């Protein structure tokens, strides 16, 4: 039997090689389409293990695909087969801290599962949910997990624009962060245990990471280039193995949330504000996002009449805007009043410079930046370079100022859009070109400039989106040799035939 016949014999209808059905596995979230001759859809963890074993025998290389929202091209095949985890999408069990367990029925729909879990908890007399865990298959979407947890007023707090499709297994594998990592840490920290298979098909796990502790402001809080081999499958981005199942820490849904938009003159001022906010709301600063003026202007232009400005005056203008969100577990507390007292009293913030709007309106502003940037990119016709960097929070403000200055001096025609997770020192950067000055003409130079400035400020070229093939060259260029060698060693140990994610991180290419 040839490779195709062997894989088809194992998977039957879950071996896909029809052109029209393969197309969706070739198109990544961003970047050019790839190409493959087959997609493999194991329907159980045991079958996933069989697929991996067989692919080792056949020396069949694989890229891993789940919700397909990844931004570093890891899921894009360049001739490899696509190993899709979309069928591994079931909730398994829910466990209380005292050991009592609810098992989800295998054939139940998501709604039935959520109802049955809530009924089980009510029948037990609604015991305390502190430190409760939910165990699910890796291919379940983040939103689907949260649908299960909502009736219990619990959540798995990943706040990303992609959660309707992004899977929990991928988030754990990628140590994905998001807007509220400032409060809860990354998906790696929010995963109590992960299991799966190493690249050679042997069983992996239990894998554990550490619990989140807010790092000192002088340390990098998020750095997805710094894979920890000791965490096993967690955070290793499909380099060593495949996560098939995860046990997730749950958090209580806040009883209340309040947020405001605040204009600031510079990012160092913003970071001082964060310090004060943390002192006044210890453990309850749930989000601290920033948007540069050009990012807000993109949204204003894109949304036109639908744009909602949360200030009374249209004249409020500043180089940066902050979205500060605080939470409380006490439904009776006057959280809005406390937030106002903090701003007007402690910070003496002028009332007209506090942007009030319902939380969804403020979130929409933040989450509309990427689509607005897409629209501007199409209109300008000069392409875009996107980056996901981070520096230690203590130097984040200086970093952004330095970067903007350096870019303006070297490439005044490039439009610079910055926004992101200021609370963990994370910046999403868009560099937009025009028809006359397309960014592609200077891509290598622009990438080097951005990453050189980032490195000067002790930052990382990959904060939370991962390295993948997209930044493999940068990893080889910039990662400390000790780390690179540790990953090469682990890759050889766990995936000796090099079948998994073979282009990611550039580990298999000769130095
Ligand atoms: C609009 C938008 C907003 C986003 N916002 C954020 C954000 O705020 N923060 C953030 O961190 N990311 C963000 N992302 C990126 C993305 O959602 C995350 O990287 C997420 O982890 C990808 O999940 P997925 O299921 O779509 O994985 P896929 O795209 O299907 O897979 C990507 C790669 O992840 C690895 N992988 C996936 N599943 C597994 C597994 N079970 N075992 C081992 N490896 C695996 C593989 O290398 C795979 O190729 C955003 C993406 C979009 C489109």
Protein model, in words:
Helices cover 34% and strands 20% of the residues. It is an alpha+beta fold. A six-stranded antiparallel beta sheet has the order 6-5-7-11-9-10. The protein has a six-stranded antiparallel beta sheet with strand order 13-15-14-17-18-16, with helices on both faces. 48% of the residues are buried. Among the domains are: 3-84, Uridine Diphospho-n-acetylenolpyruvylglucosamine Reductase, domain 2; 91-252, Uridine Diphospho-n-acetylenolpyruvylglucosamine Reductase, domain 3. The chain has helices at residues 3-11, 19-26, 45-58, 110-123, 142-149, 168-174, 181-184, 267-280, 293-303, 335-346, 359-367, 369-380, 396-410, 443-456, 472-478, 481-494; strands at 15-16, 39-40, 62-65, 81-84, 91-95, 101-103, 133-137, 154-155, 191-198, 203-207, 241-249, 251-252, 256-264, 285-292, 320-328, 381-390, 415-420, 426-434. The longest helix has 15 residues, at 396-410. A hairpin with a 5-residue loop joins strand 17 (415-420) and strand 18. It binds flavin-adenine dinucleotide. Residues 29, 63-71, 74-75, 85, 138, 160-162, 165-167, 169-171, 173-174, 176-178, 237-238, 242-243, 370, 464-465, 501 line the site of flavin-adenine dinucleotide.
List the helices and strands and how they pair.
Blueprint: H1 3-11, E1 15-16, H2 19-26, E2 39-40, H3 45-58, E3 62-65, E4 81-84, E5 91-95, E6 101-103, H4 110-123, E7 133-137, H5 142-149, E8 154-155, H6 168-174, H7 181-184, E9 191-198, E10 203-207, E11 241-249, E12 251-252, E13 256-264, H8 267-280, E14 285-292, H9 293-303, E15 320-328, H10 335-346, H11 359-367, H12 369-380, E16 381-390, H13 396-410, E17 415-420, E18 426-434, H14 443-456, H15 472-478, H16 481-494
Parallel strand pairs: 2-4, 3-4
Antiparallel strand pairs: 1-2, 5-6, 5-7, 7-11, 8-12, 9-10, 9-11, 13-15, 14-15, 14-17, 16-18, 17-18
Helix pairs in contact: 1-3, 4-5, 8-13, 9-12, 13-14
Bound molecules: flavin-adenine dinucleotide.
